């Protein structure tokens, strides 16, 4: 099976190992590579037109981040989601992102709120166009933009690790998220930022995580489909 590995922005400073790692990591994080997908060094190398050496290092790093798991046949697997793992990832994400949002609030400027509102508008357009890949990227951009207002932020790699592990499963759910996502929590986040209301902000962040995809994920896991 040919993999869907989206292109990413690159630079001359990136080594081939760094480029492969960044590209595969992005593909998994946005859910372009589905759960249950088997990866081989040779297959990925042939698709990217590279030697197996940088592929081997990229897969090793992704394995250490629990984005993929090694198999007995020397393949790597994008793991299926289980109920226990899902609940633990969601709980960890909630704690980390509530913390990151609250710590960012004192540094959020009016200009940053405008930028966040522009991202949210693009998300609305992506929903209307049913462009779910773009929607996933924009959602991550929205949260990253908010948290990175804090110049002393240290939690972003941890948060992105959770996104990485949730990405493929999240992508399976997003088409049906409107069945569960009744409140637009991004609008609530923006209102809380306008009002400088920390309590409302962390409540909106938790609602954004817990509603929608999480509700849909629990239904999917319970149904075993």
From TrEMBL:
Signal peptide (UniProt feature, chain positions): none
Coiled-coil regions listed: none
Keywords tagged on the record: DNA-binding, Transcription, Transcription regulation
PROSITE patterns, per database record: HTH_GNTR (PS50949)
Entries under SUPFAM superfamilies matching the protein: GntR ligand-binding domain-like (SSF48008), Winged helix' DNA-binding domain (SSF46785)
Top-rank taxon: Bacteria
Domain HTH gntR-type, first and last residues per copy: 14-81
PANTHER family, A to Z: HTH-TYPE TRANSCRIPTIONAL REGULATOR MCBR, TRANSCRIPTIONAL REGULATOR, GNTR FAMILY
Protein name: HTH-type transcriptional regulator McbR
Organism of derivation: Tritonibacter multivorans
Record lineage: Bacteria, Pseudomonadati, Pseudomonadota, Alphaproteobacteria, Rhodobacterales
């Amino acid at each position: 099976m040919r993999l869907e590995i989206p292109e990413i922005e690159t630079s001359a400073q990136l080594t081939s190992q760094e480029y492969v790692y960044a590209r595969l990591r992005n593909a998994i994080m946005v859910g372009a590579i589905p759960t249950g997908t088997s990866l081989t060094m040779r297959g990925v190398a042939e698709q990217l037109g590279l030697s197996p050496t940088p592929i081997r290092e990229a897969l090793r790093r992704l394995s250490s981040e629990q984005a993929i798991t090694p198999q007995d046949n020397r393949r790597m697997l994008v793991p299926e989601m289980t109920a226990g793992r899902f609940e633990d990832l969601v709980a960890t994400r909630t704690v980390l992102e509530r913390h990151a949002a609250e710590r960012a609030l004192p540094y959020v400027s009016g200009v940053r709120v405008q930028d966040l509102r522009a991202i949210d508008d693009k998300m609305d357009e992506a929903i209307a166009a049913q462009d779910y890949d773009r929607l996933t990227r924009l959602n991550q951009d929205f949260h990253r933009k908010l948290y990175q207002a804090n110049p002393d932020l240290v939690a972003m790699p941890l948060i992105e690790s959770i996104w990485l592990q949730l990405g493929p499963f999240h992508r399976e759910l997003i088409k049906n998220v409107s069945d569960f996502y009744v409140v637009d929590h991004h609008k609530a986040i923006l209102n809380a930022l306008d009002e400088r209301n920390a309590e409302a902000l962390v409540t909106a962040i938790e609602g954004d995580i817990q509603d929608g995809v999480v509700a849909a994920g629990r239904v999917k896991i319970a149904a075993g489909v």
